[in-house]
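question for whoever is on the cluster today: can someone run the full assembly for these? two chains, 467 residues total. i dont have access anymore since they changed the login thing
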Amino acid sequence: MYQGRGFILVVFVVLSGAIFYRIRLARTGKVPYLRKLAGVSAIEEAVGRATELGRPIVFSPGIAGLGGEYGAQTFAALEILGYVARTAAKYDTRIIVGIRIPEVLPIAEEIVRSAFAAEGKLDRYNPDDVRFLSQAQFAYAAGVMGIMERERPGATFLIGGFWAESLMFAEVGNSIGALQIAGTANLHQIQFFVAACDYTLLGEEMFAVGAYFSGDPVKKAIIAGQDFGKIIAIFLIVAGTLFATFGLESIVNRVINW
Amino acid sequence: MKREIPLVITFVVGVIIILDYFFKIGIGTLSLATVSMEIQNWTLIIAAFALGLAAVNLLRIHSANIRLKRPGWYNSLALIITMVIMSFVGITQGTNSPLYRYWYTGFLVPVDATIFSLLAFYITSAAYRAFRARNVDATILLVTAFVVMLGRAPVGELIWKDVPRVTKWLMDYPNMAGQRGIIIGAAVGALSLGLRILIGLERSYLGQD
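^ ran it for u. tokens below:
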């Protein structure tokens, strides 16, 4: 085993074990209760609003790719895109998706196409509405802002990994009066979304949305299993604080470097 | 089979990458690290193909704009012309050639910087809305932000020498505690999503079921 990764492995195994245990419980009929999140409930409201106004929806899955530490955010965004696209198809509302990462393009195309197909409205699917804009960060930002200004969407979804462009999108969306739902796990952008958007999915909430929509008890069980991860984190924080207080940092360092 | 094969590939590749992160496993010249590296090289090749698809998407949409004379069609024309020229110069002379570098640093970089600079105005308008003292929470935000801004500017220390210390305390304790809560939650959430994808419970990336 590589040095310094033993402790991570233990946490990974324990957390995975807790999640699988909750899955087993769910399969025996013990479905956990998930509290309602305002941002999640607002998704249908946002699509409904755009429909009433006769305006499209603009969706940005962020600027992160599919790999690396930010990849999970893109996958979470694509999960939410599937639900939003299906709701848009149900209400006959146009959905425009702006893409920055080339690998995300075929996946987003397939998600939106199959969402329209699932609602029996494949003829309403316009492949030109899933658009690759640019790989360059600010060219992409200009592209999304341009689409917002021209198309005047009734609702915007800014969900995924965002960096400096987050506030640009949110402010343009705000200036055109769109109902905005945002979500990111990028710490330094969350406050911008909170300040400028109507609803914000904070960090872990964004990753849980797929389980909410699916209604699948097993997926709900996984979300409940996450709570065990947070209990581990709280325990480690308390233990670390005690060790540091009593001058036992060497023990902490030994565990971390194992 | 259209669904099963991608799910099997996802599982096998995911397990290899995870095992490679933790363990040094190898028999003879074949090691897990080599296999993992090879898989990561494949993703680069797939990314190159995806870039081709993206270019086709871009050309299709913008050539339709020109053909149908949609509003702003001349912007689409400018995009296609510059894209073709830059691609031609990049492929034939390389991206380090003086001509390519001239266009890159002379056009793209300043336009990029211009778009970035818009952020200053957006921050101002967002701050104006966020800092209005509409309720108790917003008032706390307003007061805290005022103290932090004062502590970051030289004038703060002139008003009261301890303002930078108060700012540091606000950033290091209440702010950091909130940040860590979000970081831990997001990390656990990302791990849980990864597990859902790995075991095939999450398939939305393959389209609807």
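summary bc i know u wont read the tokens: Helices of chain B lie at 4-22, 32-67, 73-93, 98-130, 136-152, 154-159, 163-198. Chain B touches chain A through 56 residues (CB under 8 Å).
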